[in-house]
User: What shape does this take?
Amino acid sequence: MMPAATDTPTARFRDRVRSLWQELEAIEAGKQYDNLEGGSVEQQRDRRLQLHHCANYAAVLALLADAGPNLRLLELGCGSGALSYALARLMPADWQLVATDYSESLLGHARESFRHERLRFELLDVRQAEPGRLAEADIVFLLEVIEHLPQHEAAALLQRLHGAMRPGGRLVVTTLDRSPFKRPFSQYAPHFVEYTFRSLSDFLSDRANSPFESFRVHRITSARIAGESVRNENRGGYLVNRLQRWSFAMGEQYPWAGRMRERLTSAVFRLYSLVPRSREFDLDGYLETIDLVQDNAESRDSDSFSLVAELRKA
Assistant: This one.
C-alpha cells in the first residue's frame, strides 16, 4: 500500500517544525536580556527568525529518527535553553539530553525555567570542552554555533570532538546559509564566519579541519524565508549590522564604550519587548514552503536558509 500523501519526509519535517514552534510559543519570555545578541530565541520579536531556529531543531529530530533507542545527546551552545527544553519534550522517551553553554547567567535561568526529567543543563565552553565529557554522548550537536567561532577554533573543536567520541558517534552542525545573498558576509557582529553550501563542504572535507571520516551537508529550504531575508538585508539590515559591528569593535578597544553598548542594547531590547507582537504571523504559509533537502542539496542556492551538516566517526 502506498503511504498517505501526508506521510512523506517533507510532511513529517514540517510537523516537527510546527511542534517545536508550538512548544516555543508556550514559553514565557524572560525580562532579562543576557544573550550576546540582545535576546534569546524566545525573546525575539522576529518570528520568522524564531521559525528558522525551530527548523534547525526539527532537522536534528529528522536526521536522528533512525538512530535507535537510549541515546545520550549533548548540545553545545544551548543559549537560553528554550529550544533544548522543547526538543526534550518531543524526543523519544528513552533519550537523554545534556544541554551546555558557557554563560552562567543563561544556565541559571534555564535551570529555573525549563525543568524536564530527560534534560540537564551544564556549564561547558565549546572552546575548552574536555574529552571525558564529550565521550559520554552518542550524539553531539551544535546549532547556530559554528559561525560564532573563527575557523581555527572551529577546526580545533572538530578535532577534539572526533578524538573524544566513540566509533559510530554522530555530530550534527547547523549554520545559516549565505548562498542566496550577493554579499559573502552580513557584517553581523557576533559572527566570525558565514558559510555557503560549498564553503562549508570545502571546510569539512579538509582533514586538517575535520577528521570525521564521512559527512553530508543538507539544506533547509524555503523560497519565502530566503527571499525575505535577502530583501531585509538590502533594505537596511546590512547597514544596521555595520553599525553594530563598529560598536562591538569600539567596545573591545575601550571598556567604557563596551559597558555603554551593553546597557544601551539591554535598554533597547527591553523597550522593544513592550511592543505587542503581531498575532497574524502566517505560520501555515511559511510551513508550506519549508523542506529539509537531503538529496541534490548543492543545487538549491537560491532558496536555502540553513545548512545542516551530519558528520560520522568510523
About this structure: The CA atoms of residues 73 and 109 lie 21 Å apart.
